[in-house]
Amino acid sequence: MKHPFILLNGNIVSGNQPHFISTNRALRYGDGLFEGMRVKVNRLPTRPIILFFEDHLERLLNGMKALGFAVPENFSPAYFFNLITELLIANNVSGDAIIRIQVYRADAGLYEPVNDQIEFFIESFESSVDSFIWNENGISIGFYNEWKKDFNPAMNYKTCNSQVYVMASRWKRDNMLDDALILNSKGNIADATSSNLFLWKENKLITPALTEACIGGVVRKNLIAFARQNNIAVEERAVSINEIQNADELFLTNISKGIRWVKSIGEKHFNHSETKRLTELFYKNVDGKK
Length: 290
Known about the structure:
Layout: E1 5-8, E2 11-14, H1 25-29, E3 32-41, E4 49-50, H2 53-66, H3 77-90, E5 95-105, E6 118-126, E7 139-149, H4 163-174, E8 179-184, E9 189-192, E10 196-201, E11 204-208, H5 218-229, E12 234-237, H6 241-245, E13 249-254, E14 258-265, E15 268-269, H7 273-288
Parallel strand pairs: 7-8, 7-14, 11-12
Antiparallel strand pairs: 1-2, 1-6, 3-4, 3-5, 5-6, 8-9, 10-11, 10-13, 13-14, 14-15
């Protein structure tokens, strides 16, 4: 559930009132990007714990540069931490929450912008109850083939031009699946509707490389580093549909849910022993950093 207040260009305002006009470039052209973060608020709301905070800010700023935005000098981790804290206090948040930062090119213009200055807003939402908890029953997924994800300089960022993810999400809904794998324009796996994909094969952990048009997931990044620190072989490379169908185990990762093991793709069923072991170790490591 969305909380009542948002933070618009640094100011707390009601999230239930209109704040945007028809020339908004994010609305007209998808000229923007967003970042989702997981927050834990304990008894002291002035010191929220933002999971992998610096990695999220790095991805947001790099995405802004990829889109040619003029990045304000004050867009620092301290600046955003203070804004997020202010919003959490205004919304009286306790417990877990999801923060969403959206940045877009300001002013009007047609395809050619008037300038590259930016505006932004920050929202907070209640976190899912199954966030970063082992999904005992597994999930069922499928291959979405109707739209492919293109290769471009912004392909690793969460841009507002997310039509392929919308269409894949509609498809998995209509087919009563938990998620869908999205292909890149070469026919290999890019990612899922809101997650990165990993597979186990002969004790190796394999995931599509960033050059395969997947989102540069923050959990993906930290899980790869953690696995390598624990002497688990990790390969980042192209992954074919055939490899997925012949994998030993599959799982998906994102900042909202954490790690979710895949039970099935069609008639193919997967094990989960290695995934569960890695998940428990990773969650313990994450908890230790809070």
